[in-house]
TrEMBL record:
This is MarR family transcriptional regulator. SUPFAM superfamilies: Winged helix' DNA-binding domain. InterPro entries: WH-like_DNA-bd_sf, WH_DNA-bd_sf. Gene3D superfamilies: Winged helix-like DNA-binding domain superfamily/Winged helix DNA-binding domain.
Length: 186
């Protein structure tokens, strides 16, 4: 029974450490935005409407949900058609995964990015190298484990994803804006 208790204590400690690590990542991301001169999603004028935010390429909470749904739709498509070979855009899958990870303030290892791309590791690694060369993502060594490397969207990659979702989701935000007006007008 002592072993089971020790395992439970270790899991609780690990969970607390993960929480602390996530908080540190969030703080680091905020510092990165501040250092690059960009404003984070939370620093927008109060009077700016949702449609104006969409038009200006600013962040919007619905975009992470759209990214997550897009990623899940791509996985569902392969399951329904029972073929991984019919549909594939590993670079886009990696970008979606990293965008969601950035919004959730979590780190993604190269290994996880490869798995998330739903292609063989060699293919995923080739796409990671291409995305890095294009300046859309960055690699970061894990200071506590030299064998592990993390990937994340670069400032340019994150901005491009914001721009993509701002242009592709204007109608969703417009509908949301109108529904709020209807509720407040009632």
């Amino acid at each position: 029974m002592d072993r089971a208790n020790q395992i439970m204590r270790n899991r609780a400690k690990a969970s607390r450490l993960i929480g602390i690590a996530n908080e540190l990542l969030a703080m680091a991301r905020d510092l990165e935005f501040a250092a690059s001169g960009e404003s984070d999603a939370t620093i927008t004028p109060i009077r700016q409407t949702k449609v104006e935010k969409a038009k200006s390429g600013q962040d919007h909470p619905v975009w992470v949900e759209l990214a997550r749904q897009t990623y899940e739709d791509r996985r569902r498509r392969s399951k329904i058609f029972k073929s991984e070979e019919l549909f594939g855009e590993p670079a886009w899958d990696i970008m979606l995964d990293l965008f969601v990870a950035a919004k959730e303030r979590r780190r993604v290892s190269v290994t996880s990015a490869c798995i998330g791309s739903a292609v063989p590791s060699t293919t995923a690694l080739r796409w990671i190298a291409i995305l890095e060369r294009e300046g859309l993502l960055l690699r970061e060594a894990d200071p506590s484990d030299a064998r592990r490397v993390y990937v994340k969207l670069s400032t340019r990659g994150y901005s491009a994803m914001l721009e993509y979702f701002s242009q592709s989701s204007r109608s969703v935000i417009l509908l949301d804006e109108h529904s709020e007006e209807a509720v407040s007008g009632s």
